[in-house]
Design goal:
heterodimer; A: alpha+beta; Beta-Lactamase; Heat Shock Protein 90; 3 domains; six-stranded antiparallel sheet; five-stranded antiparallel sheet; 17 helices; rod-shaped; B: alpha/beta; Rossmann fold; six-stranded mixed sheet; five-stranded parallel sheet; 13 helices
Chain lengths: ~600, ~325
């Protein structure tokens, strides 16, 4: 099984991206379009959902602020009601030269002591007229220097609400100190019909405001704080940390906000801010919800969406890859078939025909073209082969004119010498030689005929060479009817005579042997001549090589070429030689009868 | 065949992806964020005196997801009681432990020896030089600043530094005071008492010796005793105190004390929690924030000091 190789896989992808394969283009473009549309849709839904959810949270905070505003207004109205009650029902009806307001003040204090720390009436010069609960003024405290006193003196027609502060006017029997918000107003005091100005002070218990906001802060997201019109903090859940410089708040900026919703960035944090103004006082209730806190609740949704998106992306990517593979696989296989054709392998059966109708049609058309091309090429090759055969056969069929002249000269000499039987024998051999050479125009003859041809030739040459050599021919009778190309033994004998035994002082021997081995036929022509030097031997079978001895050497090459043309490259001529020992020329042929040969030729066509 | 292999591979990959995503979904889609658990171990019989510090630590914890458990180790249980309490808090899952130790040296040695300093920090009581593990006001500098204030007021010329016990904080403050007075003509004596009767004896001596016209009371017991005997010793003897109890603020308001060096426990509590939750950035936070104030009757109701001294406002 082929192992997965990541590097090769990446290389393939790179290669494919360079080639811009159809599969890559299809899968990539589909994937990009799918991802873009899905991301767009997911973002649109997500943003819409988050915005709606955030708006819901802000709306909730608005409601909380409305509620706390209502509570605070109600508390402040109550405090103003106490102040009004004290002023209009008590102070205005009293003559301070003879009456005191202590009893009424105590009653009012007792009735509201959960929300009050003290009520006091102070004259314009800072003298304490009356106070509830009854208390002693702290030594060294000057009422006229108090912020609430100065503010009231400055604008006598209004109620004044101070910022929270520790009440430090009266002695305390224990270690307790009270944080208060002072509500002060200017009042008219009667002294025997004379009116003098004084100040009525109602110290509201800051813990009531603190409690109101603390309860809300425990329940709502983010936090709610209270500032005055200048941005000074009246209540903040981390008020002390802010004053100590440990925490920061955007209170000054918040003071500039009108009622409504805002998104602000503070301390690197984006926050949703809702502002509500409290009547009479100019105070502002500010609700702050860090966007991050709102987002925490959507973590689950975010993760869930991320999962859906990644799984869908995975499915889309794989789907695109798989579908594009199915679509493009036939094209790729057809392309591989074309690559084979381009590489010279014209095997029409290997051309891929499959896939969609269009691709199948394309495959069939290509296959048809390849078949036609192959036929044309085969015809052309056959023509070339035939032409070559003809040329080589013609070359081989040429009778050496010297051989013919010498033979006829020998016959004339025999007749003159009245050696008629020898002359007849020689002419008979020559006639037989020509008959086989012609062979009715056939180039393929039986081994028996080829051997006969060789025998005739030897008979003639022996007479001419006056039996200077001995010739032995041995043929396996089983192969006599097998075929061979004509005129392939005679040139070898001719070479043996001319180049080997013809010039020997001793008696030369030429052995011709035809036998079968391993299903093939071997014909050997051996002589005991001088042998062929290796450098000559190695060039003997090359085209148009010229041997240094007699002849051009074309004969041997011609024999080899003709055998190759008629049969396969496996068959042909080989020559071995040893100096002073002799030479052996071996022809290797397929073992075929004439009928078998012709059947093969027909099949090839 | 090839396609079949591809499909099988795809289904396995999809299965793997779903498993991974399921893991992510289970682990990262929680509505609540990870909370840090901090235990605050205070030495003492109750936690009332640490209200300010608790308030500060809670304010800091409210910014971040953090739970703080407050526990006290009775004085009688000693250092061992505190150590037991620290170990118990850690074993019960506390991420960090803040210790306000009454036995700093023993407990610190134990914590250091057991390599617990990454988890345990000391607040308020301890060696202010060891600022990596101790979160507290710089007592030495407090002493220097207090000395500077006394010299500027120019009302005392001979002081007695009086303490009812020997502690690292007291010693640091005394060293700071000495350093602050070293170039002045003001004379001083130091008396660290080992018990209440010795302390009382020293207070009575103030009347009879007439050597000192001022006392710097270095701890709560000394302050309470001095104020209660003030009428007896002399109205002219100025009492300067180092403390951060509400009683001392009251003494100051009622003129029993001339001035008070007041440590802001709220800020200490706040910084301590931030110190743990925001990666040990204590030194940086603390440098920009005053951890103590020198207060007298004229300044105690100022806008800034009012909020420090009267801890109602959160």
């Amino acid at each position: 099984m082929k192992k997965f190789n990541l590097i090769n896989y990446i290389k393939n992808i790179k290669r494919a991206s360079k080639r811009r394969s159809i599969q890559l283009i299809i899968s990539l473009s589909f994937t990009i379009v799918s991802i873009l549309s899905m991301t767009f849709m997911a973002l649109a839904f997500y943003t819409n959902y988050i915005n709606t959810a955030k708006q819901t949270a802000i709306d909730y905070n608005e409601k909380v602020i409305d509620q706390i505003s209502w509570n605070l207004n109600s508390y402040l109205r109550n405090m103003m009601g106490i102040s009004n009650s004290m002023y209009y029902n008590v102070i205005k009806n009293l003559d301070l030269t003879s009456d005191t307001m202590t009893k009424e003040m105590d009653l009012l204090y007792e009735a509201n002591k959960d929300n009050l720390i003290s009520i006091a009436c102070i004259s314009q010069d800072g003298a304490l007229i009356s106070a509830a609960p009854i208390a002693t003024r702290k030594a060294g405290v000057d009422f006229t220097k108090q912020e609430w006193f100065m503010n009231t003196e400055e604008r006598i027609e209004n109620f004044h609400f101070s910022s929270p502060h520790v009440q430090n006017m009266f002695d305390s029997s224990n270690y307790r100190y009270y944080w208060v918000v002072s509500l002060s107003r200017s009042v008219e005091l009667n002294y025997m019909g004379h009116t003098r100005r004084g100040i009525l002070l109602v110290d509201m218990n800051y813990s009531a405001i603190e409690q109101m906001f603390s309860n809300v802060n425990e329940q709502s997201k983010g936090y709610v704080y209270l500032i005055d019109s200048n941005g000074e903090i009246i209540f903040h859940p981390r008020q002390k940390a802010i004053y100590a410089g440990l925490a920061k708040e955007n209170n000054i900026k918040a003071a500039s906000y009108d009622e409504g919703n805002y998104v602000e960035r503070f301390n690197g944090q984006q926050r949703a801010v809702v502002v509500k103004t409290v009547g009479y006082t100019g105070w502002k209730i500010v609700s702050v919800v860090p966007m991050e806190d709102l987002a925490v609740e959507y973590n689950q949704l975010r993760v869930f969406m991320l999962i859906i998106i990644t799984v869908t992306l995975f499915l889309i990517t794989f789907g695109n890859f798989f579908i594009s593979k199915i679509v493009t696989d036939p094209i790729r296989r057809l392309e591989n078939s074309l690559n084979d054709i381009e590489g010279g392998r014209f095997d029409a059966d290997n051309i891929y025909i499959g896939g969609s109708h269009e691709i199948r049609h394309l495959g069939r058309t290509i296959k048809s073209l390849v078949v036609q091309m192959r036929n044309l090429m085969d015809e052309r090759v056959a023509e070339q082969k035939d032409k070559r055969k003809s040329e080589l056969n013609a070359l081989q069929a040429q009778i050496n004119p010297h051989f013919l002249y010498n033979t006829l000269d020998s016959v004339v000499w025999m007749i003159e010498a009245q050696k008629y039987p020898e002359a007849i024998s020689m002419i008979t051999s020559l006639a037989s030689l020509f008959r086989i050479s012609l062979s009715k125009g056939n180039n393929i003859i039986t081994i028996k005929d080829e051997i006969t041809h060789a025998k005739n030739y030897l008979a003639i040459q022996k007479i001419r060479y006056k039996n200077k050599f001995e010739a032995n021919i041995k043929v396996d009778p089983e192969i006599e009817n097998c075929i061979t190309i004509k005129l392939i033994i005679q040139p070898l004998i001719e070479n043996a005579i001319y180049h080997a035994v013809g010039d020997l002082d001793d008696e030369g021997i030429i052995d011709v042997e035809a036998y079968q081995k391993d299903g093939d036929i071997y014909i050997e022509v051996r002589d005991n001549g001088m042998g062929i030097p290796p450098e000559v031997l190695e060039n003997l079978l090359t085209e148009k090589s010229a041997s240094k001895g007699k002849g051009s050497g074309i004969g041997l090459w011609n024999i080899n070429q003709r055998i190759n043309l008629y049969f396969k490259e496996d068959y042909g001529l080989s020559i071995t030689s040893e100096l002073d020992e002799g030479t052996t020329a071996t022809i290797r042929l397929p073992k075929l009868t004439y009928e078998e040969y012709m059947k093969g030729v027909e099949n090839e066509k | 065949m090839k396609n079949k292999k591809l499909l099988i591979g795809f289904f396995f990959a999809l299965l793997g992806l779903i498993l991974v995503e399921y893991y992510i979904y289970i682990n990262y889609s929680r509505l609540t964020r990870e909370t840090t658990e901090i235990s605050f171990v205070a030495s003492g019989d109750n936690l009332d005196q640490w209200d300010n510090m608790i308030s500060g630590s809670e304010a800091a914890a409210s910014d971040i997801d953090c739970i703080i458990n407050y526990v006290n180790s009775p004085i009688d249980a000693g250092a061992e009681g505190e150590i037991d309490m620290i170990n118990r808090q850690i074993s019960e899952g506390a991420d960090y432990v803040i210790v306000n130790s009454g036995f700093y040296e023993q407990v610190y040695d134990y914590v250091r020896a057991n390599h617990m300093l990454s988890t345990v920090s000391f607040v308020k009581n301890g060696n202010s030089k060891n600022e990596s593990y101790n979160i507290q006001a710089d007592e030495f500098k407090l002493g220097q600043d207090f000395a500077q204030y006394i010299l500027e007021e120019n009302e005392s010329h001979s002081l007695l530094f009086l303490a009812s016990e020997d502690s690292v904080n007291t010693n640091d403050a005394i060293e700071g005071l000495k350093d602050g007075f070293k170039d002045s003509e003001l004379e001083y004596d130091v008396q660290i008492c080992s018990n209440s009767s010795e302390l009382l004896k020293n207070i009575y001596n103030l009347k009879y010796s007439s050597k000192h016209d001022g006392v710097v009371a270095l701890d709560s017991e000394t302050i309470d005793l001095l104020v209660s005997k003030k009428n007896y010793i002399s109205e002219d003897i100025a009492i300067y105190a180092i403390d951060n109890r509400q009683e001392s603020v009251y003494y100051l308001d009622s003129s029993a004390l001339r001035a008070l060096a007041y440590e802001d426990d709220y800020a200490l509590g706040y910084i301590t929690v931030k110190h743990f939750l925001e990666g040990k950035s204590l030194t940086r936070i603390a440098r920009g924030v005053p951890l103590y104030y020198i207060v007298d009757r004229k300044t105690m109701y100022s806008e800034q000091l009012e909020k420090v001294l009267f801890p109602f406002v959160k």
